[in-house]
Amino acid sequence: MTRPTRLKGIAASIGVAVGPARVIGRERRRLSCRRIEDTSVSSELARFEQAVAKSRAEIEAAKQELTQQHGTTYAPILDVYLLMHGDALLIDAISEAIRNDKINAEWALSRVAERLKKPLLEDASSYFRERARDIDHVKEHLLRQLCGEQRSELAADGPTVLIAHDLTPADAVHMLAPPTVGLVTEKGAGSSHTAIVARTFGVPTVVGVGPLPIEIEDGEVVLVDGFSGDVTVGASPEERRAAETRRDRFTAFLKAERSTSAVTRDGVSISVRANVELPSEVEAALENGAEGIGLYRTEFMCLDRREPPSEDEQLDVYRRVVTAMAPKQVVFRTFDWRGDKRLRAHDLGERERTWLKSQIKAVLRASGEGSVALMFPMVATVEELRGAQSLVDECRGELKDESAKLAQLPVGMMVEVPSAALLAERFVEHADFFAVGTNDLAHYTLAFDRRDSRSAAQPLDPAVLTLLERAITAASNANKPCSMCGDMAADPVALGLALGLGYRQISVPVSVVPLARAVIRNVDLQAAAEVARDALECSSADAVRRLVVDRLGKHLGALWKEQGIV
After folding, report:
1. DSSP label at residue 178
2. How far apart are CA 387 and CA 391, in angstroms?
3. pLDDT attached to residue 564
């Protein structure tokens, strides 16, 4: 096949990597499925128990390695996999399958894993679909032990771009250390724990490129563009030199940007906060100069548990996060255990209501450690919002800690369904603040399937822009804060447009904070406002993007080209 060859995937960790390919997992495992005799059940159970113990030890070693390199705050990334090694839904079910169905451990493991993954993969939430990958990762560790395989080792003789079908987070801890400078996987998503590990190590990563159409040879030059999601195999000398120049410029740029402010060309300060899912990301948010946490996703605490964490367990995590960020604000988003993120406070079941109340109480108690706010996702009606606020009041009344009862806790909502944006002027009468989730808003507005992680609903579509304008206008008229925390704020082209629409607070992935500040300093708000007005009259997202690049490009062109956007 001719070279160079271009691959397209999901940009999971920003940066540019250049190096020779190292392909792992080239030989796909053939699963052994066989029936066993009654007399062999006990020995097969013992073999499985030994595999569980060895797999757990392997992940514990990776956890220790991660802690040594990046501190104790990063341990939760791997704790979930350790929990799964003791989960009755997985481990006990496999043992029961061996015992009752008289099948070998590999077959039982595969059968149970597929059964547990099925409802997750069918869920509309990308979060729960990603949790199916966690089951696959534990399955991979266990199968490796059952089959007596050894983890691939990398030769430390120079920079390497790792090419893999997939990579478990525990393997990523081991394999993304030097000399690895880049990662490409066939599977995966930007929200996966492997992607989080890659961002932690600062390794440019592209995931989800799909089945590799070529047989990549070890040693071939590979370029990884962690901005655009592009991968080039067999790059020419000219392409390699250009990529190396971009890589070096970005490295220097990132170091310089950590201490800069976010003030537009015409002197207006913009608040740049971070989106965080794990306590481990708080340290990076501070290092990158985030002005707070605009979106703390709490789903991670609930992962792979049949019952939610207790109020005190949640309090411990929330306190650590709030204390670390103080005096900067942390905005916690509640989590609905039913899996669709919808909060319908008026029809919550008793168990769900108890779970949600434990979270609200934990947040109220943590608010004494610093500045805290609480917001509810997927609010679609004013009745839902008022019901949520009533639940907060109910929780206050049940607390024994008087200081927590009196805690200042702004209660807001995410604007991520069309009804919330269309009636924003009514919602803002009750909400203390808005946080606009452009990803979901675009998908629901344009009727894209949320189960398709690679679908391309565009926040720049004029229909979505119209809703974004309604939300910020309603909040501004009511003198209420309104932030943008979806991917639109992290897109250098779209960010200028968001500022033109009137947004003055944004929250972006931790690694994007320096880039967002750089874009902001090159934007003139008057020019951006004129572009926004014209964008609302465009007929498509592509037309909007061309308009923004054409009109704002004279100030941002060099920055955009640096990231391979134009």
Report:
1. T
2. 6
3. 46
- CA 310, CA 234: separation in Å to the nearest integer? 52
- Fill in the DSSP letter of residue 502: T
> Tell me, what DSSP letter sits at residue 213?
S
Q: Is the dihedral of CA 200, 205, 211, 216 positive or negative?
A: negative
Tokens 């709490």 found at = 298
Rounded distance between C-alpha atoms, residue 440 and residue 418, angstroms:
9
Position 322 pLDDT exceeds 90: yes
Q: List pLDDT tens digits, range 6-58.
A: 899 988 888 899 999 998 876 666 778 889 999 999 999 999 999 999 999 99
Query: H helices of 15-101, where?
Result: 41-70, 76-84, 93-101
Pick from 454, 452, 442: nearest CA to 494: 442
- CA distance readout (Å), 288 to 285, 322, 371: 5, 17, 20
Amino acid in position 129? R
Q: Which of 146, 139, 149 is nearest to 85 (CA)?
A: 139
- The answer to whether residue 193 is catalytic is yes
How far CA 549 is from CA of 8, 219, 534, 545, 557, in Å, comes to: 22, 38, 13, 6, 8
- CATH number for 5-22+155-247 (one of 3.55.40.20, 3.40.1390.30, 3.50.30.10, 3.20.20.70): it is 3.50.30.10
| 391, 410 contact by CB (below 8 A) | no
| 258-562 CATH, one of 3.20.20.60, 3.20.20.70, 3.40.50.150, 3.90.76.10 | 3.20.20.60
Alpha-carbon gap, residue 455 to 467, rounded angstroms: 20
Q: Name residue, tokens 């979106």.
A: 295
Q: Which of 85, 141, 174, 193 is catalytic?
A: 193
With CA atoms as reference, report the closest residue to 94 among 110, 117, 118: 110
Q: Give the three-class secondary structure for 103.
A: strand
pLDDT winner (highest mean) among 91-105, 168-182, 267-281: 91-105
As a whole number of angstroms, the distance between CA 418 and CA 448 comes to: 13
Could you give the CA distance from residue 13 to residue 26 in angstroms, rounded to a whole number? 24
Identity (one letter) of the amino acid at 273?
A: R
Q: What is the mean pLDDT of residues 97-104?
A: 94
What span, in angstroms and rounded, lies between the C-alpha atoms of 300 and 302?
Answer: 5
CB 159 within 8 A of CB 137: no
Task: Indicate the domain borders of the chain.
Answer: 5-22+155-247, 38-146, 258-562
Given 3.20.20.100, 1.10.10.10, 3.20.20.70, 1.10.274.10, which CATH number is that of 38-146? 1.10.274.10
> Tell me, what's the pLDDT at 455?
47
Task: Give the integer Cα–Cα distance in Å for 421 and 468.
Answer: 7
Catalytic site residue from 85, 395, 482, 485: 485
Hey, which residues does 434 pair with through a beta bridge?
A: 413, 482
Whole-number pLDDT of residue 407: 86
Its pTM stands at: 0.74
Task: Supply the Cα-derived Rg of the chain in whole angstroms.
Answer: 24
Average pLDDT estimate for 164-180: 86
Q: 334-361: per-residue pLDDT in tens?
A: 975 444 445 555 555 677 788 889 999 9
